[in-house]
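Exam revision sheet. Question 4 asks you to relate a sequence to its structure. Input first:
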Amino acid sequence: MARLLQRRMRSERGVTLPEVMIGASLMAIIAYGASMMYFSALKIYQQQVWRLPPYDAATAAVGRVSRELADGMLIDTHGPTSIVFIMPLKDSQHDNVLTLGPNGYQMSQGDHVCYYLGNAAGAYNEDGHCLWKAVRHPGAAQFVPVVKIADNIHPELNPVDPDTGQPRGMFKYWPDDIRLWGVELWMTSTSLVHGQPRTQTAHSEVYLRNL
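Answer key, structure tokens:
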């Protein structure tokens, strides 16, 4: 009976201080290991983020210009920092409007579209860093800026043209049979990553579908 009483008292005495200290030590070791794994993973993530390119305004701009330019029917004017092309006239069903001429049916001319380098307000400026789109509707006298495509476009940072020794222009038209009337696009954008400037260059060559 006395032994049974001693066992019951031993089982009901609760947790001793040494047991608490051992448990706390084990929890501290587990927490330390988990924190080391977390900070190690965070360091690897930050290193990978550092290697990522900045927000690539140049690639986004070249992609947008290329898609619309490909639907053009004629290059009107072009230069290193601007290009004007003519879109086909569309009917209510968004089909090209055809007119009968001396040489058969031909597409009718619609909007004149201009992509150009300008300032933040939309005024043309070769030293500006904003890419704008302007439109002149049939019968209108002037182009009207409709949307700013990108900020921080820097043609002076484009790759050097080996033929001229100067940075490549943003737009170059090849009106010949060899290049199939293609338009070459070069754009370079800048961004800050961790407080340091980085650049990204995009290039494309576009061929008009509606020649």
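Marking note for examiners. The chain has a mean pLDDT of 82.
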